[in-house]
Amino acid sequence: MTFSSCLINQRAALVLDASVIINLLATGHANTILQALAVPIYVTDNVVREIEQGAVNGRPEPALLAKLIGNQALIVKELTGTALEDFFGMVSGHTSSSLGDGEAATLALAYRNGFSAAIDEKKATRIAAEQFAALKLVTTVDILAHEPVRASLGNEMLANATLHALQRARMQVREHQFDWIVQLIGVENVGTCPCLKRHARRRSPTLIL
User: Fold this and answer.
1) Residues spanned by CATH 3.40.50.1010 within the chain?
2) Is the pLDDT of residue 209 over 80?
């Protein structure tokens, strides 16, 4: 199966959710990847606070995120106006129809400013489709598969970076992205990535031996 990144002809800015940022940091090449996207990359202050909470447990992401913000690879934005209203609407209500602060802020900022949202979680994707039909959604795999990113890293470095995101951050992979991921990292590495096991079992049990 052929997989093509949905970032082809991407001109709108991107707003990154916490999970996407953590995945990119796990690659070891976050700055290079973000620079290759060649569009403004935003992160909400809600997501920054969410990741900063990991500093309490000694996680490396807060310091790495601070470096990306410091060199302006990421631009921090606060919610205002209608985006703030959308945010409050998404974080309140029943659990099945509400989101965490970071996810809600990412979607609200992107939607109200005509940006694209980079977010991996299925629940957030479902709610975005229901409430913001015009909003373009991007996954971490879309970012890694984007041709300028692939060209910037090269095949070997991209394969290692993707493997690190799978192993260290448990990057989510959609069903239609699985074959591309396996081809990139090699069949022999599928069993080392817990986040791929569900897909692998459906395709062939031998992939996870």
Assistant:
1) 14-141
2) no
Token digits of residue 85: 């209203």
Q: What are phi and psi of 15, to 5 degrees?
A: -115, 120
Confidence of residue 167 (pLDDT cuts 50, 70, 90): very high
CA distance 193 to 208: 9
Looking at 111-120, 172-181, 200-209, which range is the least confident one?
Answer: 200-209
Per-residue pLDDT, 1 = 47
Tell me the CA end-to-end span of the chain in Å, nearest whole number: 22
Task: Give CA 127 to chain center in angstroms.
Answer: 16
What tokens were used for 2? Answer: 């052929």
Q: Which fold has domain 14-141?
A: Rossmann fold (3.40.50)
Q: Which letter does DSSP use for residue 5 in this model?
A: -
Exposed (0-12), middle (13-18) or buried (19+): which is 186, by Cβ within 10 Å? exposed
Nearest by Cα to 202 from 184, 179, 172, 180: 179
Q: Considering the entire predicted model, what is its pTM?
A: 0.92
Q: Which residue has the higher pLDDT, 2 or 189?
A: 189
Alpha-helical regions (H) of the chain: 18-27, 30-37, 45-52, 61-70, 81-91, 101-113, 122-131, 140-145, 147-153, 155-168, 178-185, 197-203
What pLDDT, on a 0 to 100 scale, did the predictor assign at position 4? Answer: 76
